[in-house]
Amino acid sequence: MEHTLSILLIEDDNLEKLKFQKTISNLNPKHSVQNANNGEEALKIMNNAEHLPELIILDLSMPLINGLEFLNILKKNTFWKYIPVIILSTSVNHRDILTSYEIGIAGFIKKPNKYEDYVEKIKRVISYWSINEMIEN
Questions:
Q1: pLDDT (tens digit, 9 = 90+) per residue, 70-121?
Q2: b/e code 21-32 from CB counts within 10 Å (16+ = b)
């Protein structure tokens, strides 16, 4: 049985945020998406959250605290480290991918150029995490 997800999208590009929100709304409008423009903003959201997100979608290239820096902070925190993180990035740098997995991501997705491919990838990710058993925070 699928459940409704609480998603934190950490992305600094407004077009990417709109594209993600549109895709999620078309998949299941009950999924909630909270946006952060960078890792610093995401940490503020996490520190003040009444309920932690069940899934984090993270871009790597952002100002202030970038994706890898945020990921390091997240995975060292006792309460946050089990939240699954999916990297959604234009980077296909082997070092970025390897480092991300070493830190503890759940998956790495290259942002496709075609919107239809983007929708399909996001649909698969959300479908999987909607049926996956989560750790209650």
A1: 999 999 999 999 999 999 998 788 998 999 999 999 999 999 989 999 999 9
A2: eebbeebeeebe
CB atoms under 10 Å from CB of 96, counted, come to: 17
Please give the structure tokens belonging to residue 19: 């594209």
In the CATH hierarchy, which top-level class contains the domain 6-131?
A: alpha beta
73: which 2 tokens?
A: 């902070």
pTM of the model: 0.91
- Strand 32-36 and strand 85-89: the pairing is unpaired
For the CA atoms of the chain, what is the radius of gyration? 14
Q: Where are the domains of the chain?
A: 6-131
Contact between 71 and 100 (Cβ < 8 Å): yes
In the structure encoding, which two tokens stand for residue 27, read together? 């998949």
Amino acid at 106: A
CA proximity to 14, closest of 32, 46, 34, 37? 37
User: How many CB atoms neighbour CB 15 within 10 A?
Assistant: 8
